[in-house]
């Protein structure tokens, strides 16, 4: 880790990291200041710090985003991208960027969208609504455990939801250990609900929007929520914060 940080520091001293381009539009300038160190100037996820992370920075050129409010296979809304930048992707090197103004975040989002032709060709659909949750009860949690098994979740996530199902070794993107906290999608039951109905594009996690009955979603959400213990800071997050601190106020915004 120290060697990787030293490389970045040397790059800054030698001017190897791209700086602010005079006359560049605000989104491009801000992206180069805050994002390029991890995501690369071309938005390909190959910035000079990318090698330091187990979870690789997002390749924006593909136009695939895991954390959306829109149906599987569709583009995210601007508000989804703003949320990922501002709140971060929990437990990863994409740490929250809540010190950046909302106006600047929107400018960065607009520039990030320019890396993929999908945004010029397609219009994001309406978000999938998330209904208000019912009161969480032991009966709903128990029912959720049954739904978890019925839906085939143990095949990837394992019978105890530790990410060790029989299919896990063959998957390029490893299933989440659902007993660990934080979960990448967010801390609330609504975040879990959104993941179930939208899926995580670019990973083996499918949408269950058409696979589960409407009344089954909140029980399985409550069951997964019941498995978590206290939150822990991950190594990825520590590295992300090191990179951010070394690049502030100029750098430090990887988006996974």
How is this structure best described in words?
The chain has 2 domains: 137 residues, Cytochrome Bc1 Complex, Chain D, domain 2 (Orthogonal Bundle), CATH 1.10.760; 89 residues, Cytochrome Bc1 Complex, Chain D, domain 2 (Orthogonal Bundle), CATH 1.10.760. The protein is 40% helix and 0% strand. The longest helix has 13 residues. The N terminus and C terminus are likely disordered.
Labels describing this entry:
single chain; 256 residues; mainly alpha; Cytochrome Bc1 Complex, Chain D, domain 2; 11 helices; globular; disordered N terminus
What is the compact description of this entry?
The chain is an all-alpha fold and 256 residues long.
Helix content: 25-40%
Query: How large is the count of helical segments?
Result: 11
Gyration radius, to the nearest Å? 19 Å
Shape: globular
* CATH architectural arrangement of the largest domain: Orthogonal Bundle
Please give the alpha-carbon distance between the first and last residues.
19 Å
Derived from helix and strand composition plus strand pairing, the structural class reads mainly alpha
By oligomeric state, this entry counts as single chain
Largest sheet properties: none
- What is the string of SSEs from the N terminus onward? HHHHHHHHHHH
CATH topology of the largest domain: Cytochrome Bc1 Complex, Chain D, domain 2
Tally of DSSP β-strands = 0
Strand proportion:
under 5%
The CATH C-level class name of the largest domain = Mainly Alpha
Residue stretches low in confidence (pLDDT < 50, at least 5 long) are 1-24, 250-256
Number of self-contained structural domains: 2
């Amino acid at each position: 880790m120290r060697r990787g940080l030293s490389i970045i520091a040397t790059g800054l001293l030698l001017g190897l990291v791209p700086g602010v381009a005079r006359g560049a539009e605000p989104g491009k300038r801000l992206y180069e200041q805050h994002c390029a160190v991890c995501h690369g100037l071309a938005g390909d996820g190959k910035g000079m710090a990318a090698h330091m992370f187990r979870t690789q920075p997002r390749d924006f050129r593909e136009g695939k985003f895991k954390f959306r409010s829109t149906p599987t296979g569709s583009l995210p809304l601007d508000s989804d991208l703003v949320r990922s930048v501002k709140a971060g992707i929990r437990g990863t090197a994409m740490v929250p960027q809540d010190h950046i103004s909302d106006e600047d975040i929107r400018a960065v989002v607009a520039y990030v969208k320019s890396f993929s032709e999908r945004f010029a060709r397609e219009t994001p659909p309406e978000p999938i609504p998330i209904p208000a949750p019912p009161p969480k009860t032991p009966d709903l949690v128990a029912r959720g455990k049954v739904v978890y098994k019925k839906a085939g979740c143990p095949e990837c996530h394992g019978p105890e939801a530790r990410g060790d199902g029989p299919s896990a070794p063959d998957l390029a993107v490893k299933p989440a250990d659902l007993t660990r906290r934080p979960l990448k999608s967010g801390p609330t039951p609504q975040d879990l609900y959104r993941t179930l109905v939208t899926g995580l594009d670019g990973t083996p996690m499918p949408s269950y929007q058409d696979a589960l009955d409407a009344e089954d979603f909140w029980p399985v959400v409550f069951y997964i929520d019941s498995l978590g213990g206290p939150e822990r800071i991950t190594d990825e997050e520590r590295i992300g914060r090191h990179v951010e601190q070394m690049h502030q106020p100029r750098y430090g915004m990887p988006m996974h």
